[in-house]
Each structure stands twice: as C-alpha cells, then as structure tokens.
C-alpha cells in the first residue's frame, strides 16, 4: 500500500468512527479538568450533600468516549469485514485510549501531584475495561452506562467503618494499591474479551458450554 | 457445476426462535433469485451466507472451504460482496470513499483498490458522482452506491438484499445489465420484484417460513401457474403465488 | 429517520417534540422505577407522608431539563460520541456547581423532615425546565434552514421564556424552607420521651428502647432531660440539643441524645488554666458522652458509622458498656472528678 493510500485508509476509518466527535469530547473533558478539576462538587445526598472531587470522575468520560468510538454508521458493512478491519479496529482503540491517557496524564502532571496522575491513569484503565464491556452489552454508543453505574458505589459506599477508603475505591486508593491495579487488570481483560467477542466466537463459546453441560445440541461453529 | 456457496442442513434463528430449518442449497456461478413474503427468512439466509452470523446448525461452505470459525469466516469474506437491505453509511463520505472503504473492509489489495472502486462506481452509473457526498445522493443513487460497494473487488459470491428498491425503471434496466455482465460470480438476489427475477435469474428459489417451497428456473416457476388458479398479473407472479400455495 | 424528518411536511418543531418527549420519557421511566422501588421498600413501615411530591416533581423537572439540554446539543452538534459528553458534563457541572440548596436548588434528595419545598419556587423551576424544553425544539440549528413564520416567532418566544424563567427562579427564592412544626407531636410513651416527625414513625419502637436504656442509666451520676426532640420539631429550624436521624441511623440519633444527657450530667467546669487543662476537660467530657451514647444505643459504634469525638477510642467504649455496672460507674466517676479538678484560668 502506498503511503498516501495508507493515510487515506486511516482517515476513512477515523471519519467513520467519528474522530471529530472524539477530539471535541477529549478537548471538552480536558478543559473541564483544567477549570473544574480541583472543585469538590457538592452532590445530593440523603443527609445533605456529599463532596465529590470532579477530577476523580473525569477518566470515566475519557474511557466512555474511547469505547464509544468503536461505533460506526458503517457497521452493517463492518460486521462482514475481513481480517484487516479487525486489526485496524484494535489499533484504533489502542490509539484512542493511549491518546486519552496521554492527555490525562500530561494535564494532571501539570496541575496535580504525580500520585494523582497515576491514580487517574489507573482509573482510566479500569473504566476503559468497564466501558468496553458496557459497549458490548448495550451497544458501543451506550458504553457509558456501566461506568456511570460504577460511580454510585464509588461515591456512596467508598468508606469503611473507620472512614477509610475501601480497598476497591480505584479513584482514591494510593498509586501502589495492589487491589486497585488488580481491578484495572481484570477490567481491561474483561474489556478486551468484550471487544474480541464476535457472533462466531460467542457461538463457539456457547457450544463449548453446552458440551461441558452435557447437552447434545449440534451447532455449526466447532 | 462447481458451487461457490453450499448450505447443508442449515438451521438458523434468533435465540430459541428458529427461522430456517434444515436448508440444503448449492449456489453455483449464475444469478439466483430469492423470492418470498416478508418474514420468510430471506434476509436471515443472506446474512448467514455473508457469514455475518454463524449458523445454529448444519454447514456453510464458501469457495470450497467450510466456514466454521471466526478465522475461516474472515477468510471467506474476501470472496463475498454483500449489500444489506438497510445499510448505513457515513454521510460525509464521497461515493468514492464509501466504495473504497468497503473495498478495504473486504481486503481488496490496495494496489488494485482504486481501479476497482472506480470501475464499480462507473458500472452502476455513478461515474459523474464519484466525489458527491453520500448525504447528497437520492434514494436510488444511494442504492446504486451500495451495489457498487458490493461488487467492488469482483467477489465470487455476491449477495444483494433488495438491491432495486428505489430505482427507477431505467436504473433497474441498467442494474439488470450489470448483473448479467458479472462473469464467474454466484449472485444471490433477494427481491420482491418478480420481473427482476425473470429478467436476470438462472435459478429461482421461493422461500416461505424458512423453507424452500420452490426451486427451478423462472420458466419452471411460471409453469406452476398452469396447475392452479393463482392470483397475479403475469405468469411469473401467478407461479410465485402458486408456489406459496395462495390461490384466487 | 433523518431523511424522513428532513423531507417531512410538518414544521420541524412538530417533529422535534415527540423525539424529545421520547427521550424524556426514558429518563422519567427510570426515575419512576427508582421512586417506586424506594416507595415499595419503605411504605410498609413509613406510613402516609413519607413520599414528598415536591421533591419528586423537582426531580422530574431536572430530568426534563437535562434531556432538553441533551436534545439541544444533539441538534446543534450531531455527533453520537461528543453529544453525550457535552450534555452530560454540562448538566453535571451546572447542577453540581449551582444546583445546590444555596443556589438554584435543583438537588432532589437533600431534604430533612424539617425542610419542605416552596410551591412557588418549585413551579418556577418546572417552568424553567419546560422553557428549556421549548428552546430545544423551537430553536433552529445554526447550519440548518432558517425557521420562518410561526416557527420563527416560537423560536424567539422560547428564548425569551427561558430568560424570563431564569429571572423567575432567582426571584422565587430558595426552593426549600423550614417546615412548620406539627400541631401534635409523635412521641414515645416513655420517660424520658423522645419525639419525632410523623414521617419517622417507623423508628418509634427503636426510640422507645433507646428511652428505656436512657432511663436505666445510673441516676446518681446521670441526669436525663424529660424529653428529646428531633431537629425542627419545635419550630425555628435546627436547634442545639435536638437530634437528627441521618440515613436512618439510630447511632446518629443516639449521639445527639447522648450529648444532651452529657451536658445535663457533667459538672459545670471553668475554662482550663492552660491548654493541657482544657484538653483534659474536653477528653473526659467526650469520653462520658461516648459512653452515654453507647449505653442508650445498646452497644458500640456500628461498623457503617465513622468519626466521633476526637481522642475517644470507640472500640474501648464498646467494650466498656459490656462490663459490670459498678465498673462503669467507677469509670464515669473518675472522669466526672477529672472535669471538676481542672485548674481554672
């Protein structure tokens, strides 16, 4: 492939996957981080109001946008694509998530302590995995549903009886918290699996499951 | 004749709802018309042939290779051109970009893709609209752009789901000419328009409730009407209605 | 549907209205589902009055407001990826920054029993939500065809109505106000008695038990007032000495009651002569208050509660209340003595 052809192919892929929307969304989130990141937002709470540091939740938006960028108006054609598309899809996702990580990290290193940058980078990884899972379940445009749902325990149940952040609170636990890194790894693994699942692989999985359960139904994918 | 696609005991459905039950069909080079009422299973059959969804049972063979995994499906897709019934598109694409993107999706070699795209677009009569944005196309032009995207790269198996919807009579004649001109290709044409079938198809298959209720030539289908008092304005329509078991 | 909408013979706003209505309906259905679940798990114990229509309407108004903002953003910037981010972030930031009770008052759940929604202010906010909805359907896209005739007038009117509604919200004042004290109070039949708002009737058995435990405190050391009241029950908003039930926690109520009993029982002490003396006094007072709290709560601080007076080991207090009464009395006497013995300034 000539170099210009390769770039045009990338450009066509990017346009079909709403690169303009991704860039606008990233810019907006970055601006919000810069302006409101330090603000402890007061949210409704039964006992009055609860303070939620805005910055801690912003990786969710980055992750949801990254996962949503897998949606495409060309999906009816893409679902019968050959091998190159899948490779490009993975590269695209990796590129978008990496871009989000770079924007987030650089911005946080400028305006926050390094530890905060690491925590938010970890949160980005966790939410990316969850967003990919959500996208697979509800459709890529609705990648934000499960990440949004995860905010509830993170903002209402994050303290234990001693007032300490629970081990799974990936938005507050220190950078070296092994539990939170394990969650990040598990979430990314689940997200990767969600991206890798195709109707064929799902059918094969169901066939294996049926075989393991001793059912005799014959299915095509073997 | 050598079958480009072959189905054996194909079972297909959605969850527990079975749409197709045990179909056998060899699709050799030539034009194969797929007729049937709404809900007969035509689109499901085409999606299965396009490897968009795996069969729930039976086997699918494309170009002599059984398709039974994601890997083999991706390999088979290089030989398949598919125009879905309701296809989406990126509205800001030009017709050329749209067809080039579809060519890339099917792994059409980059060195040939440009010429293939141009040839496909010109063959559907959109040569003057190569750089017109998709959102500016009329319904008929959109359909032709879709056909161009399906034939780009000269696939061995061409699956067209309602390709002539929205085309005016002249465009439909041009489309038939295009289909006739495709050599070494097995074309499966799902349509409600029996005139298209009569004009271009070597074989007609009538589906009802996920089963083939008729297979033969258009002439054979027309001959069905002689045996019953079926409704219709032409022998082929009456034959179609007779095949479905609908009498006056 | 884009093409069908574009070529439709109806005015554009007539097409937009059902689209926005559908989106809003999704939000309202989810909101109603949450409300119904809350009602279903509460109604058996709570009785009438537990569900406040004012807050529910305020919440519904927020749903309409945010759906309208999303609709407007979606029409102006047709990107399936950017629109949820723009709409979500702008609503989140706007509501969190100026939605609190001290500002525009769009928060839904922050209502203590002694606070109620002001009907006029609520209506002003609902009008604002409706006005933004009108704006979302009537105002044309910047790059779209210009509205003409009646559509143009409607678009201009919707902008004006939004501006007026914003002014109206400011003019209507805070959305919450102090609730008038009930004419007859709901109290336990115990001595001391504990009185709560009618909506809190489901807690009465627990308060009866708490009152009985308060009555069982050693009378030679502890002097309990004859009655305790939930915040706002005696009118005039929050009062020192009245307790609150935060998130249904009896522990929080016991803390409030314990402090009142502690204040009534502990010797009146002078200001310490030095910081160490003052610290000694406060430490003793905090420990006695914590002991009283644990006694009337029927045990130590539960695991889901945290915080408390500084320097007090709550686990130690929890162990203390399980020891023999004589040991506890001795422990309290030591601290009472310590309060009385400090060097005065």
TrEMBL record, chain A:
Keywords: Membrane, Transmembrane, Transmembrane helix. The chain crosses the membrane at residues 21-41, 91-111, 117-135, 179-200. This is Uncharacterized protein. It comes from Kitasatospora paracochleata.
TrEMBL record, chain B:
InterPro entries: AAA+_ATPase (IPR003593), ABC_transporter-like_ATP-bd (IPR003439), ABC_transporter-like_CS (IPR017871), P-loop_NTPase (IPR027417). Keywords: ATP-binding, Nucleotide-binding, Transport. Residues 5-234 form the ABC transporter domain. Pfam families: ABC_tran (PF00005). PROSITE patterns: ABC_TRANSPORTER_1, ABC_TRANSPORTER_2. The keyword ATP-binding applies. The keyword Cell inner membrane does not apply. One of its GO terms (molecular function) is ATP binding. Belongs to the ABC transporter superfamily. This is ABC-2 type transport system ATP-binding protein. The lineage of its organism: Bacteria, Bacillati, Actinomycetota, Actinomycetes, Kitasatosporales.
TrEMBL record, chain C:
Keywords: Membrane, Transmembrane, Transmembrane helix. The keyword Transmembrane applies. The chain crosses the membrane at residues 20-43, 55-73, 85-109, 116-138, 150-169. It comes from the Bacteria. This is Uncharacterized protein. It comes from Kitasatospora paracochleata. The lineage of its organism: Bacteria, Bacillati, Actinomycetota, Actinomycetes, Kitasatosporales.
